[in-house]
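ASSEMBLY PREDICTION REQUEST
Request ID: AP-0331
Submitted by: J.K., bench scientist
Number of chains: three
Total residues: 1056
Priority: normal
Notes: Please return the full assembly, not individual chains.
Input sequences:
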Amino acid sequence: MISGRKLWNKEARAGVLFASPVIAGYLIFVLGPMIASFIFSLSEYNVISPLKFIGFSNYTNLIDGTDPLFYKSLGVTAYYVILSVPLQILLAFMVALLLNHPIKGKTFFRTIFYMPTIVPAVASSMIWLWLFDPDLGLLNQLLKVFGISGLQWIYSENLAVPSLVLMSLWTIGGTMVIFLAGLQGIPRHLYESVEVDGGNWLHKLFFITIPLMTPTIFFNLVMGFIGSFQVFGQAYIMTQGGPNNATLFYSYYLYREAFEFSSMGSASAIAWVLFIVILGLTMMVFKTSALWVYSESEGKR
Amino acid sequence: MRKTAGLAWTGMIALSVIVSGCSSNSGNSNTNEVSGNTVNNTSTNTANNTVQNEPEKHDPVTLKYTFWGSPNEKKVQEAAIKSFTEKYPWIKVNTLHIPDAYTTKLTTMASSNQMPDIGLLNGDVALEWASQGRIYNILDFLNNDPDVSVNDILPNTMYYWDEGKLAGVNGALEAFALFYNKDAFTDAGLPLPPTKADEAYTWDQFVETAQKLTLDQKGHNALDPDFDPKAIKQFGVTMPLWAYMNGVVSNGGQFINEDGTEFKLSDPEAAEAIQQWADLINKYHVAPSPTQSKNLPSGATALQSRKVAMTMDGQWSLVDLGAASKKLNFGVGVAPVMKNKATMTLGEPIVIFKDTKHPEEAWMLYKWMMNPENTLELQTSGLWMPVLKKWYENEDLVSKWAAGNPAHPDGYQDAVMRNAFDNGFPNTSYYVKNLSKINSIIDPALEQVWLGKATAEEALAKIKPQVEKELKGVYTER
Amino acid sequence: MISSRFVSKSLIYLLLAAGACLCLFPFYWLLRSSVMDQSDIFVIPPIWMPHDWLFSNYREALTILPFNRYFLNTFIIVVLEVSGVVLSSSICAYSFARLRWPGRNLVFMIILTSMMLPGAVTLIPQYVGWAKLGATNTFIPLTLPAWFGGGAFNVFLLRQFFMTIPKELDEAALVDGAGYFRIYSRIMLPLLVPALVVVGLFSFLNGWNDFMGPLIYLSDEKLYTLALGLQTFKGMYNAQWHLMMAATTVVLMPAMLVFFLGQKYFVEGIVMTGLKG
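STATUS: Completed
Returned structure:
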C-alpha cells in the first residue's frame, strides 16, 4: 500500500499544478453546460418557456422507436464514420509521407494541399454540387470513358453517404499537417542505421516511420471518431439530410430537433446518447492503445 | 521563460482593456430609464402623438431592432429607421442585422432575457413564441391607434396565434406568378402568357406551352418525336417545388382540414395537383428535376441564359429581373389555373417582444416600418409588396411602386398585384401548428415524387399516419 | 540505381502535381467566380476563363462590408485566442504525457469528454452562463476559454507529441537536479516547437473562420467579424454570389498567408530538433 505522502510526491504535485489550467477550464466552462444539457434531456424544454421535468421519456422515445428517425440517423452516421475515418487517415498519411520527401517546392505543395480545408464551405460546396451532377458533372463524364454512366451520387439513397465521404477526403489538410509535424520528430539517425543495415524504404516505413508515428496516428484516429460522429456541415449545406433521410447525420438531426422543432429536451437526449457512444468507442481505442502506441514516457513499446 | 510570462501579461492586459471597452458599450444601452408602460395603457398612444410638438418632455429611449436580409434590404431598412429617429429624436434605434441562423441566435438571446424590442421573425416561430407569451398582441396597439386600423391591413399578411390575437404583420407581402423570357416565346412563335387571372392558362394549355418551349441540344422541342429528354438545353418552366401548395389550392385541395386534425394532402384533389407538378418533370420533361435544378441558377439568371423559358416563382424574383432588364427582355404573367384562381402569399412578420421596456415606442417604429412610404425603395425594386390595402386600391399610391420602374413591367399589376389581392391564399406557416416537424416528414416523401420514384398518391398515403401523429391542430381556422 | 531513383522521384512529382491540381481547384473556382457576373457563375458547362474580369465585384463587396472594422475585430479575437492556446496548452499536455500523478488518466479522459457532447445542446447553457457574468456582447466568451489549456483538442495533440520525446532527456535533467518546470521550459518546449506551431495555426484558422461563436455572442454590428460579414451577401430570398466570392477571396488571403508562413516555421523547428535528436 502506497502511503498518501508517497502518492502525492513532488512529481504528482507538479503534475496537478501544471494540468490545472485545463482542469479549471473544464470545471468553469464545460461541466456546467454539460450538466445543464443533461437536465434538459430529462425535461420538456423549448428554451423560451420554463422547463418541465418528465423523467426519462425523451430517452425511451428514442429507444422504442417513437421517433422513427433516431435509428436511421444513428445508422447513417455509423456508416459514414466507418467509411470515412480509415480512408481519411490512410490518405492523409500517404500525402504527408509524400510531402515529407526532400523535394523542390514542398512548402508550396504543403500550402496547396491544405487549401481545401480553408476555402469556405460556400465556395467548395458549389463545386461539389457540379462534380456530382448526374448529367453534366465532371465525375460522370470521366466515368463515361470507362463505360460507367448514370451514377446519381448525392441524389441516390445508396450513394449519398459514400459521395460525402469522397468529398470529405478533400479536406484532410488538418490531419495531414499533424502527420507532417509528427514526421519531423523522427530522428534521422534511425533511418541512417536502417540504411547501414541495407534496408530499403519499405523497411524504413514499417520499422521506423509507422512505429514512431503511432502516437500521432492514435490522435488522428480518436479525433477522427469524435469529429466524424459529429459531422454536420455537409448534410446541412449539400443535402439537407436527403434523399429520403439517407444523409440525416446525427448532428444535423439533433440541430433540427433543437432549433427548428424547438424541442431542446429531446435534442439533449439525442446528444447524450451520442456522447455515450463516442465515449465508449474512445475508451476502447484508449484501452487498445497500450498494445500498439509507442510511448517514451510509459517506457514500453 | 520570462519572455513568455511577459507575453501572457500583455495578453491579459489587452484582454481586460477590450473587456472594459465592450462592457461600457453595452452598458450604454442599458442605462435608459424604464418607462414602466405596459401594453394595458397603450391608450396613451394618442397622447404620445400630440406630444410631438414638445419633444423635450420625452425621456430618451433606445430600441433594438433585429432583422435579416440582403445588403439592399439592410441598407433601405436602416435608412427608414434613420428617418424615424430623425422624426422622433428622443428614440434611438440600434439595428442588428443577423446574417444567418436567425432563429438560433434569437433563441439564445431569449434564454437570457436579452431579446430585442422589435424585430423580424419567421412566421411559424412567431406564432409559437406568441402562444408562449413572449410576443405582444399587435391588436392591442392597433385597436387604440388613431392612424391605422386592422381593416387597413391585408388579411394575408397577418399572423394570428388565436382569435383576436395578432402576433405580427409581415414586413412585406409576397405572391407567386409566371416570369418569362419574351425572346423564348418569340423564337417559338408563341403568344405571350396572359396577365389577367380570368384569362389564365388552363393546366393543359400551360403544359403544351411548356412543351413547345423546352428544347434539346439539337433544337427539337418536347412535342417533337425526336426530342431527347436527356440533353435538354432550355427547360420550358421551373418552379420552386416547396411551393406545391400553389397547385394544391388551385386544384381545390387542402393541406389539413379546418381544425387541423386530418392530413388532407393525400386526398385526391391535392395528390392530383402534386402529381401534375411531378409530371412536368418526369412525364413531359419540361421542368428540371430537383437534381437538375440544384445546378441551375435562380430566377433572372436562368431566364437570361435561356436555361429556362418560364419560371413560376415568387414575386421577389423581380428585384433580380429588374436589375437584369437591360440584358433580359422579361415579362410577367399570371400563374396557370387548375380549377380555382389561386396564388400563395407569404412573408415573415415583424413582432414586438414581451421583454421590451418601451412597447409604445416599439409600436411607433412598427407603424413606421409598416408604411410603404418609408421603405419605398424596397417596393419599387420589386423585392417587397406593401402590406396596406390602400396601396393596392388607390391609383396614386399604386403608381408610386407598381409602375414606372424596370421591376414592374406592363402586366405586373394584373398578374401579381391584383391576383395576390383577390386570389391570394395564406401559406401553411400562417396557421399550422408544429409545421416544421410536419414538413420534415412530408418533404422526404415528396422528394420521391419529384424524382419519379413514387406517385403522389402512394407517397402521401404512406406518410398520412405519421403526419397525423404530429398534427397539433391550427392556430386559427382558415 | 540512378535511373530507379529518377523514376521514383518523377512518380512523386506526378502524384503531387495531380493532388495539387485537385486541391487548387476550389481556390481557382473561387477566384474565377469572384470576377464574374452573377449570371455566369452557374452556367454549365462551366466557364473556365471569364470573358470580362469584373474587378468591380471586389470594390462593391468591400464597400458593402465595413471591412476594416470587421478585420480589426477578427484580428483582436484571433490574437487573443492564439496566444492563449499557445501559452497554456503545452504545460498541461506536458503534465498528462510526462508526469505521473494519481488519477491522471481518468482526468485526461474526462477532459476529452468536452469534445464528445454536440455543441448544439450546450450552446444555450453556455450563453446563459456568460450572460449571468455580463460578458455577452464582448469578445470574452470567444477568447477567455483559450487561456485555460486551449481546450481538449490541443492538449491531446501536444500530449501525443510529448510522448515521442526520448525519456533519457528528462531523466538526465532530473538527475542533475532540475525542477519539473525547468525541464518543461528548457528541455521539452524547444523540442515541441513544430507541434506548437501546428496548434497555433489551427487556432488561428479556427478563430478566423468561426461563424457560430461570434454570431451567438456578439449582438452589436460594430463587433462583427469577417466570417459574419461574409454571410451578409445571402439575402432572404436571393444571394449575391459574385460579391460573396469576391469578399471570401479577400478574407481567405490572410489565412493562406499565415498558413504559408507557419508551415515554413515548423519545418525549421524540426531541423533544430533533428540536430538534437
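REVIEWER COMMENTS: Chain A touches chain C through 101 residues (CB under 8 Å).
SIGN-OFF: pending second reviewer
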